[in-house]
Amino acid sequence: MTTTPSSVLPALLADNPLLGNHEIVPYHLIKAEHVEPAITHVIESNLRQLAQLLPEQLESPTWEGLVKPLEAMHQRLLAVLQPEQLLSRHHHLAVIEAYAKCRERVQAYESAIKHNRTVQAALQLLQQSPQALEFDETQQAALNQALRAARLAGVGTQRPTQIRIERLHVELEGLYQTFADNLNAASQGWTLAINDETALAGIAPAVRASMAQRAREAGLSGWLLTLELPLVLAVASQAHDRSLREQVYKAFYTQASDQGPRAGENDNGPVLQRILAAHAELAEASGYRSYASLAQATRMFDEAADVEQLLLQLIDKVRPAAQAEFAPVQELAAVFSVPTLEAWDCNYYQEKYLQIHHGVMELKVRELRIMGYSCTLWRAVYEAAEVQIRRQRQAGHGCDQRTKGTIRSVSE
């Protein structure tokens, strides 16, 4: 994580863990009050730098003077924003909410950069300059992608068209976030309190302990099941209680919809309808037949039909193998008096099939301790790349002393 060197930070920001140079992001130090000042500092710093470099680059653009600073600005903001993606909502709700409050400002900044005609003009001058002939393939691709992004953002079109495209992009960003917020609210809104442990038969002790911990945190006795993915997967593949599997399956796969146990609450149906309509409007404003065609402009295929053809070919290739794997699982379910295998049965009987016929338990594979293999792994990394690894909390554990180097710390 690299943002602004700590030596040039204002005094009030010097201790902000979202700023400065860190080999490993200090997640444990990030607090809600750090978020807005860090984002504000990076955005304002980037805008100042952009205002300073553009006049010169419009006269004589260079790779070092234009493209590299633009990429550095992008990376500085990204370094401040990325920690949100890895923070647990359960433990860092205040920090995540602080990021949410800054979302509109970030979107406005990104939109301003994306739709900046002066930046595009400088990039075009650079592409047309004699020095561009000496750029390597990576540089040429980066420059082409930057200009393509500006073109797709409407830069260079008539002003009314550009304004329309810009507004659609802003609206879509808001719709995507609304969709995510609805999904999160729906996930947080469903819980199942369980007081009879027999209902949890088959579920691993570690998972049950996690559910008991959640119940205690909620001031309840027994166990509390939520729609967090690890718990949902554990119930789907381990719970003997078929009705519990069905209940959790339906709750999970109908989140934020007009169906299921919380039908209509945080319903994303209208949001999806508006997203589709905005996609169609954006494609039309950008000169494409459909949003699928517009999306392909930044991908490896020329036409959306090529993607569809590839997917259909893949389906034809994998269907026989999938059917062959599924048939014995269906037969096993019938042995357990389940004549029709429902969606909430598949993971459970697949796990049973592996246990019975191959002696394999996915749970045990996941629980395999890494320490029995880490010494060999560390030595292999050292020999292949001369990268030395040490444990963050307790170094060594009988390993070769080379594995206690100082290049990077890897926590286990």
UniProtKB/TrEMBL annotation:
KW tRNA-binding (keyword) present: no
Classification via Gene3D superfamilies: 1.10.1370.40, Neurolysin, domain 3
Domain Peptidase M3A/M3B catalytic: 238-363
Domain Oligopeptidase A N-terminal: 45-158
This protein's name: Uncharacterized protein
Keywords in alphabetical order: Hydrolase, Metal-binding, Metalloprotease, Protease, Zinc
Cofactor(s), names only, from the UniProt record: Zn(2+)
Annotated GO biological process: peptide metabolic process; proteolysis
Cofactor note: Binds 1 zinc ion.
Cross-referenced PANTHER family: PROTEASE M3 THIMET OLIGOPEPTIDASE-RELATED, SACCHAROLYSIN
InterPro entries: Neurolysin/TOP_dom2, OpdA_N, Pept_M3A_M3B, Pept_M3A_M3B_dom
Family: Belongs to the peptidase M3 family.
GO molecular function, one term: metal ion binding
Pfam families: Peptidase_M3, TOP_N
